Amino acid sequence: MSQLLKANGLSVSFGAAKVVDEISFGVPRGGTLGIVGESGSGKSMTSLAIMGLLPKGGKREGSLDFDGTELTALSEPQMRAVRGDRIAMVFQDPLSSLNPYYTVGTQIAEAYRSHRSGVSRKAAKQAAIEAMERVHIREAGRRVDDYPHQFSGGMRQRVMIAMALSTDPELIIADEPTTALDVTVQAQILELLAEVQRDTGAALILITHDLAVVSEVADELIVMRHGKVVETGSAEQIFSDPQHSYTQALLDAVPRIDDSIGELRTTGGKA
Amino acid sequence: MTRFVVNRVAGMLLVLFLVCLFTYMVFFLLSPDPAVQICGKNCTPERIDQIRENLGLTDPFLTQFWNFLSGLFAGRTYGGGIECAAPCLGYSFQTSQLVTDMIVQRLPVTAVVAIGAAVLWLLMGVIGGLLSAVQEGKFADKFIAGLTLGGMSVPNYVLALALQYVFVVWLQVLPFSQAVPFADDPVQWFLNFILPWSVLAIGYAASYTRLTRANVIDTLNENFVRTAKAKGLRPDLVWRRHALRPALTPIVTIAGMDFAGLLGGALITETVFGINGVGKLAADSITKNDQPVIMGVTLLAAFFVVVGNMVVDLLYSVIDPRVKAGAPA
Amino acid sequence: MTIPSTGLQVPAESPNEGDSAGTTPPARWSVLRNLLRDWAALACLGYVGLIVLMAVFAPLIVKVSGWGPYEFDQSAIDPNMGGIPLGSWGGISGEHWLGVEPGSGRDIFARIVYGARSSLLIALSATLLTSLLGVVFGLLAGYFGGRTDMVISRVMEFLMAFPALIFMIAVLSALPADDRAYLLVLVISVFGWPYLARIVRGQTMSLKQREFVEAAVASGASRRTVVFTEILPNLRSTILVMVTLAVPGYIGTEAGLSFLGVGVVPPTPSWGQMIASSVSWYAVVPTYFLVPGTFLALLVLSFMVLGDRIRAAVDPGGRS
Asked: Which parts of this chain are annotated as the region Disordered (chain C) (predicted)?
């Protein structure tokens, strides 16, 4: 599998503080990369660095090769054309990530219209409805005019995913997409992400602190700690034979598997 | 929605009724003898008796209050044969005029003062706030922060005197105020209002600057703004749709309430600048102890505030989709 | 109706997570230390201190300056010019440090010194009473909830919907003038407490849900113990900030009411009243309004700066 995105020596620093320290990884075309680490490990900053959306004062160094384009060399307008079109993002907390003042339809259509020139309002709305149908929101034609607060947590995350896939991106970055959701809904959202990926052939970067989450979907895995990659490999390898003591600790800390570590390992192996 | 409106209107009427009752009670219970108070300083015993009888001051409290209330809605006739059409706010014996007429005559001027000030403070506040938000932490931000602190600390009557001294007496760039109708001399008319507008606006402008700045900065940190950027939206659209609308909506509503409460500020401003509006009427009546007028203005002010609050609430349920009409707070 | 929360959303992974210890409310000594490192705050503190000393030692100060607040100095004004003070700058001289009142010749410095008494006394008493009412009713409403909360909340809404300034003026003008100072404090407080109570109520309600309070309740602590040892101490910084920010408001209110002639009764001096009587002289004797105006504005400014700094120190998030 050829690589869609290759990061080489990527660093993010705020003043003297390096929150991401020369990390390298690759995302295979149509494949899934899991980035695992605790909060503060630099995994979210990595995703924002790819999007070129670092908070004020953040500095990005190193190389990000996206399908032959060097993202770090792009101007802001050029990057804007990539953002939301070729690379889309799904954030952690769907409620605060959606603007309360606009209907979900408007917000999905906004992404679509800003990357397709000459699309009428009506056509964009139709695209929004289709996107909502693809993420299995029932009665999408009616719900397209509802506001975010009228949706449940899981449904809001579906809206976020609809927004991301509306432009048929080549890469979707999902930053802790299930953390803010109920346990029962988490599995559905993961399933949906896998389904979207199957249907569209998009690559996925799944960022999480929860090894159980990546075990289901990731092909490749990197484990981050204090801004550095401490372990990298296929999901199988890491689950069956963690090399780093930190990965071992993370594996041991998976809370929801209360049977045995052995079982977790086999689950991971199948994914 | 209908239920929400009905509830709010009912609540509003209740508050207005309580304000009436409260105000009436204060004047009834606290004034040793309303007739003497109303009669003023140069008074004769006969006149006092006449006032007592004409105003029905010999009646028990509830009867008097009822007469006052029904006068508000149906008008009333005073003992001396004075007709007072609804809404009858009372009769000023000191000036031999109906309170409603006195207020209605002066309302247009006060409206001019209030509207001009509101426009000015919204402009200054929003522009200043946006500027400091964009320049957060830089010189412009700190400079504006200093100005707002100053604007909030100088009492408006001090400011009025200072501005008047500087611009009229010292620099002589503005003329002494003369009462001219707009149609006769629009320029003089406009120049007359520059200082009152500024004085009334500056305190509000300062607090609106702070509010706008805080709201814009907070909104820019919201996750949905990040989402908008992640969509690849143009920066101007990110600002307009995702930062300004959520940041400015609460400001517009607060402005509604402040505007409704402006009569208090107009009191001081109109007095200092000698503008013959409702505020000056109230201030003069305080000096002369002309209680029916004071009470009339108080009720009018309460009416504005209560109605203003209600309009703002209704408006809010329209512009903020989360506040669905009828939903409990 | 809900006002959208504009509070700062801290992202899940903020770049400066390393110093997250700084977000816990710092101890009181560090608040003080921060204040002392800040020259503006220090200057404000100094000014407030100066005015307080002036108010406390007014009789002594006036003895030193030589003129009492009620003494008329006919020799300092020009009777032929309608009582304009002799000499430039409103008659400022070694004799009358801040000039004299036009028309009467009373010493402005002495009246400023005595006026500080009324301003501070009334503003501070009103603040005290407001805080007391606000904390008590806010705690009651927030802690007990239910019907208590409903009644208190309705009363608060009613008072906040009132045109407070106009009503204060109306009431004060109807009341006998004998004990104006007390009445002023009372009237200001009656309309002022809901603003503090509303915040105390909200915080009490959320504190009630916190583990340490629930633990105290579970371990059988009495209501009084819970309120006084668990909840009240946690409200300390909120109350401190609200109170500091209330003082300048009340100073302004007192001065405004006195300016309108329903405040402190003459001849007792008050800054607002001095400014009111300067209105007819402003064009001829500008120092007459400038002196009390400056004293007043600086006092309000100082309290506001101090309030801001205290708020910033106890609440680094910058939420209002």
From this structure: 1-25
User: Chains meeting C at 3+ CB pairs closer than 8 A?
Assistant: A, B
- Measured in angstroms, the CA of A94 and the nearest CA of chain C are apart by 13
Q: How far apart are CA B181 and CA A236, in angstroms?
A: 87
CB contact at 8 A, A115 and A85? yes
User: In angstroms, rounded to a whole number, what is the distance separating the alpha carbons of residues C13 and A42?
Assistant: 8
Mutate which: A101, A114, A145, A161, vs B, most B CBs within 10 A: A101
- Say how far apart CA A213 and CA A187 lie, in whole Å: 8
Q: What separation in angstroms does the CA of C176 have from each of B16, C181, C269?
A: 26, 11, 18
C144 reaches B (C-beta below 8 A):
no
Task: Give percent of chain B with pLDDT exceeding 70.
Answer: 90
B249 touches chain A (CB under 8 A): yes
The Cα–Cα gap between B319 and B256 comes to 14
- Chain A residue numbers with beta carbons less than 8 Å from the beta carbon of C15 are 14, 17, 19, 45, 55, 57-58
Q: Which ipTM score applies to this complex?
A: 0.85
What one-character-per-residue DSSP string does B276-309 give? Answer: -SHHHHHHHHHHHT-HHHHHHHHHHHHHHHHHHH
Q: CB–CB of C16 and A14 under 8 A? A: yes
Q: How far apart, in Å, are the Cα atoms of C273 and each of C97, C178, C292? A: 20, 17, 9
Do residues B77 and B84 touch, judged by C-beta distance below 8 A? yes
- Rounded CA gap, C299 and B153, in Å? 8
Could you tell me which CATH number the domain at C50-72+109-314 has? 1.10.3720.10
Question: How many Å apart are CA A104 and CA A151, to the nearest integer?
Answer: 10
Query: Which residues in A have their CB inside 8 Å of a CB on C?
Result: 14, 17, 19, 39-40, 42-45, 55, 57-58, 92-93, 96, 100, 176, 179
**Contact (CB<8Å) A80/B222:** no
Render pLDDT for B2-46 as a digit per residue (tens, 0 to 9). Answer: 777 787 788 888 888 888 888 788 777 666 565 666 666 667 777
Per-residue pLDDT tens digits for C113-168: 888 888 888 889 999 999 999 999 999 998 888 888 889 988 888 888 777 777 78
Whether the Cβ atoms of residue A119 and residue A113 lie closer than 8 Å to each other:
yes
The DSSP annotation for B193-256 comes to HHHHHHHHHHHHHHHHHHHHHHHHHHHHTSHHHHHHHHTT--HHHIIIIIIIHHHHHHHHHHHH
Which residue from C9, C12, C15 is facing A58, i.e. has the nearest CB? C15
- Is B232 within 8 Å of A110 when comparing Cβ atoms? no
Q: Give the distance from CA B242 to its chain's centroid.
A: 32
* Cα distance between residue C234 and residue C245, in whole Å: 19
SS3 percent helix, strand, coil of chain A, rounded to 5, is 45, 25, 30
pLDDT at A89: 93
| Cβ separation C259–B157 shorter than 8 A | yes
Q: Neighbouring chains of A at 3+ CB pairs within 8 Å?
A: B, C
Interface mutation target, options B132, B171, B218, chain C, most CBs of C under 10 Å: B218
| DSSP code at position A148 | G
List the single residue in C4, C9, C13 with the smallest CB-CB distance to A40. C13
Query: Cα C109 vs. chain centroid, distance in angstroms?
Result: 23
Q: Are A168 and A200 in contact (CB under 8 A)?
A: yes
Cis peptide preceding B87, ω within 30 of 0: yes
Residues of B in contact with A107 (CB under 8 A): 227
CA-to-CA dists, residue A262 to A211, A222, A246, A257, B203, angstroms = 14, 21, 18, 10, 69
Taking the domains of chain C in order of start, what are their residue ranges? 50-72+109-314
Cα–Cα distance measured from residue B237 to residue B45, given in angstroms and rounded to the nearest whole number: 74
Question: For position C22, what pLDDT does the model report?
Answer: 37
